[in-house]
Write a structure and sequence with these properties.
alpha/beta, TIM Barrel, 10 strands, binds iron/sulfur cluster, BATS_dom, Elp3/MiaA/NifB-like_rSAM
Length: about 400
């Protein structure tokens, strides 16, 4: 890195520019009392100014050279009773996705080992169903998967539909690091009639989603909750989604930004792709409003070229899914992602490198060891709430 000697005088402008490239000793505070107007103002700012500001905040809170590599596995595919209008796994739509039973433990462990060998530090398992009711044996199998994969030193995430507080507690005890439950879009757009006369989802309410997120958070599991762009929503809805998570008592540790991949047979099969600038704007706004959160460039990443992805990483996206397959859409393979990251000076993040995830894991290990953790979770709502707009 270039270090000016004592005789080199930098202009104020250059000093400001260089200051965005190093972690600040006093990062901007995390705020939990956002108004929609505040967030809209950020979202509407000129795009390159927005990216610059997001990149600066990213560098205060994260190592900008690190990208979390996650691998996703569908452990129970298709046949789902829910009617999510974007999903090929719903039994209500005629799609190429075929229903299957919950997979056995060993193939999942094999896939996790392979993911680890290839540099992934988080392994996520998804099951296509509404919830775990009536699935006692299946849940026990999943708890074993979680225990075994956590034992490999990986972060473990699941997405299993709605959870009760007791189920969340059992998952935590088994070693679950994170639970994914997306809000999808704003509260206002969620029930609204969209293309072809169907809602985004009718079988699960927004509040039921928030209840599952609360159960996960209360169990001490990291929350992964974000949305999908391209459902037919407006800028106001994208702001509404960010507002919803920004005002939670703790910001989610992970915020996935998915771009709809329209699937034939689903009600949204003919949706227009969301413009790249909208994806970049959403990522940048989320980075500013949720400064400590991992922003996950999720489904639809394959539609972006390398330079577009790099711009997203610049603006604060710091996690990707990599491997063989997303839940139902294609994924970039490890070797391609590693080569891309090398070209842009990026490298994989270690397990439990994110401070908030590490804190929750520390608390879990301390409880298991029978000691009170000095790093027990803090009440994020008590953090500094100075206006950072
Ligand atoms: S998104 Fe999940 S809950 Fe909705 S239909 Fe697909 S598998 Fe079922």
């Amino acid at each position: 890195m270039f270090r000016p000697g004592p005789t080199v005088r930098l202009s104020a402008h250059l000093r400001r520019a260089l200051a965005t490239h190093v972690a600040s000793p006093t990062p901007s505070p995390t705020r939990h009392s956002w108004s929609k107007q505040d967030i809209q103002k950020i979202y509407d700012s000129p795009l390159l100014d927005l990216v610059f500001r997001a990149a600066s905040i990213h560098r205060e809170h994260h190592d900008p050279s690190k990208i979390q590599l996650c691998t996703l596995m569908n452990i129970k595919t298709g046949g789902c009773s829910e009617d999510c209008s974007y999903c090929s796994q719903s039994s209500r739509y005629s799609t190429p996705t075929k229903a299957s039973r919950l997979v056995d433990i060993e193939p999942v462990l094999e896939a996790a080992r392979k993911a680890k060998e290839n540099g992934s530090t988080r392994f996520c398992m998804g099951a296509a169903w509404r919830d775990l009711s009536g699935r006692k044996r299946g849940f026990e199998r999943i708890l074993t998967m979680v225990r075994e994969i956590r034992g490999m030193g990986m972060e473990v995430c699941t997405t299993l539909g709605m959870l009760s507080p007791e189920q969340a507690r059992q998952l935590k005890e088994a070693g679950l690091t994170a639970y994914n439950h997306n809000l999808d879009t704003s509260r206002e757009y969620y029930p609204e009639v969209s293309h072809r006369g169907s809602s985004v989802i009718t079988t699960r309410s927004y509040d039921e989603r928030l209840d599952t997120i609360s159960a996960v958070r209360d169990a001490g599991i990291s929350v992964c909750s974000g949305g999908i762009l391209g459902l037919g929503e407006t800028d106001k809805d994208r702001v509404g989604l960010i507002w919803e998570v920004a005002n939670m008592p703790e910001h989610p540790e992970s915020f996935p930004v998915n771009a709809l991949v329209p699937i034939k047979g689903t009600p949204l099969e003919n949706n227009e792709p969301v413009p790249y600038q909208t994806i970049l704007r959403t990522i940048s706004t989320a980075r500013i409003v949720l400064p400590r959160t991992i922003i996950r460039l999720a489904a639809g990443r394959q539609t972006l070229d390398e330079t577009q992805q790099a711009m997203c990483f610049m603006a604060g996206a710091n996690a990707v899914f990599t491997g063989e397959q997303m839940l139902t859409t294609p994924c970039s393979p490890w070797d391609e992602d590693k080569a891309m990251m090398g070209r842009w000076g990026l490298e994989g993040m270690g397990s439990f490198e994110q401070a908030d995830v590490a804190r929750k894991e520390g608390a879990r290990l301390a409880v298991q060891a029978g000691v009170r953790s000095p790093t027990a979770p803090t009440d994020a709502s008590k953090e500094d709430e100075r206006n950072v707009v």
